[in-house]
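Risk register update: the risk of archive-format incompatibility is retired. Evidence:
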Amino acid sequence: MKPEIKLRAIEPEDLDLLYRIENDVRLWNVGNTNVPYSRYTLHEYVANATDDIYVDRQVRMMVENGAGEIVGIADVVNFDPGNCRAEVGLIVLDAFRRQGYGSSILSAVADYAVSVLHLHQLYAFCDVRNEASLELFRKMGYQTSMPITDWLYDGREYHNAILMQLVF
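Archived output:
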C-alpha cells in the first residue's frame, strides 16, 4: 500500500530545506543541476514563481505525508502545452526512502498531469547507473524509450541516460 501524500506549493518557510536539497552534491548527478544555488537565488525563485505552469513552464511542489512532514519535492518542468507533455522529477528525502513515497509521488503527479494539465505524456531522463530510479519509473508504468549517450555531466565525466516515458 502506497503512503498517503499531498502535493503543495512551495512556501517561504521551505527555503532552508530547498537550500539543503539544491546544494546536496550527491543529487547533482541525477538531474540537470550541477552548480550550487545561493539562498538569495532560491528566495527570489520562491518569491517570484507565479505558480502558473503556463507562465513559468514549470511547477515545483513540496510533498507532505499524512502526518504533515515534508518527504520530498516533485517537479514538472519543460512543460510543452502544444505537444501535451512535460518532464517529471522527484526527490525523496533520505529519511523517507524505500517506504513507497516515490510511487506515491509519481502517481500524484500523473493524476495532476492528466486531470489538471490534460497532458498526453510525462517523461524523465534517468542515469543508466541509477537502478533505484529506473526500477521506480518502470514500476509506475514508464516505458524505456531510448538510451542517450553522454547526456548527463556531473562536473567530471559524462554519463549515459535512458529516456523513460509514460503515455496516457
